[in-house]
Amino acid sequence: MSIYQTKLLPWEDQTNNTMFNTDTYKRRREVLQQNIQAKGILLFLGNIENPINFADNASHFRQDSTFLYYFGIQQPHLAAIIDLDEHKTIVFGDEMSMDAIVWMGRQETLKEKCEKAGVVETRPYADLAIYLATAMSVKRNIHYLPPYQSFNKILLSELLHISIVDFKPSVPMIQAIVAQREIKEAQEIVQIEEALKVSNQMHLLAMRMAKPGVKEYEIVSAIQNVAGSHNCELAYNSIVTINGGILHNHYKMNTLQSGKLLLNDSGCETPMGYASDLTRTYPVDKTFTPEQRDLYNVVLNSFEGAKAE
Q1: pLDDT at residue 10 greater than cutoff 70
Q2: What is the pTM of this model?
């Protein structure tokens, strides 16, 4: 077995899941509605595919985490509302066109995905603007979270007829969601542990590869292969560098040299969107120099002390 190959983990078959069971999403939405101190409409905007250099060449799609938490559907160009006054939950999105089916093959329909999330009502994406306009015409409150994708900033501005600089995200919605999501369910902890197990393999491989003459990008490529071999994505762009003093250093062309330290800041994300984030620093040589060991122990003792508090 080469250093690039990894054994399948005991829980490997679980990573094919992309959603929890239906009751999970229904219960989460029910808890949110019970706890939020507000009336009106809760608006959830899903993410879109972001083109790299033209429309059909997009970056890896990552659904909005809050949308995933309450609806579980990993599909671009969706939105959803929870109508607190009328006790409705609606997902807005479009089914695949014939052109899309020819291009990508027949897939699970949006309606089928919504049923798995416990949502019985779906409407075309264009109906979202109509629904919100009707609500605003009678002065109903529209609650929303701070948008971070440029597309959703523009979309929200158009839907609510306000400037981006005048956005006022809903404090009650933010507080209710944070209070709910910060306490992890047992099934969420399983997902986090899965991400940690894969990331552990990524870091151990990087340690084995670290030796004089190796390029930083060779290690990056190898740990990305480990994540992919377990059906995971990188949680973020890996930072693998001999210049660890430069924060978020994404330059990867350096050659590892004797006497240097290597910093590896990398993690992976499971298909259900749960991630790990690990950072380790170790010598390019087989052992630390005395000075490196002293510095390492300062950080290690600080960590151990904080952990013991």
Answers
A1: no
A2: 0.89
- Cα separation, 243 vs 281, in Å, equals 11
- Between CA 85 and CA 143 the distance in angstroms is 13
Q: Which amino acid is it at 224? A: Q
Nearest 5°: CA angle at 100, between 94 and 102? Answer: 145
User: What backbone phi and psi angles, to 5 degrees, belong to 40?
Assistant: 115, -140
**Could you tell me if 44 and 80 are in contact, meaning their C-beta atoms sit under 8 angstroms apart?**
yes
The secondary structure of 207-259 as a DSSP string is: HHH--TT-BHHHHHHHHHHHHHHTT-EESS--EEES-TTSTT-----PBP-TT
Q: Apex CA 15: angle with CA 89 and CA 177, to 5°?
A: 35
- Sort strands 121-123 and 88-92 into parallel, antiparallel or unpaired: parallel
How deeply is 148 buried, as exposed, middle or buried, from its count of CB atoms within 10 A (0-12, 13-18, 19+)? exposed
The token pair that represents 118 in the structure block? 């416990």
Lowest mean pLDDT among 24-28, 231-235, 246-250: 246-250
Confidence of residue 107 (pLDDT cuts 50, 70, 90): confident
- Structure tokens that stand for 44 in this block: 């959830």
Residue 209: predicted pLDDT: 97
For residue 1, pLDDT beyond 70: no
H-run or E-run covering 279: strand 278-283
Contacts with 205 (C-beta within 8 Å, 6 or more apart), sequence order: 3, 4, 6, 222, 223, 226
Helix (H) / strand (E) containing 104: helix 98-104
| Share of residues in the chain with pLDDT > 90 (%) | 82
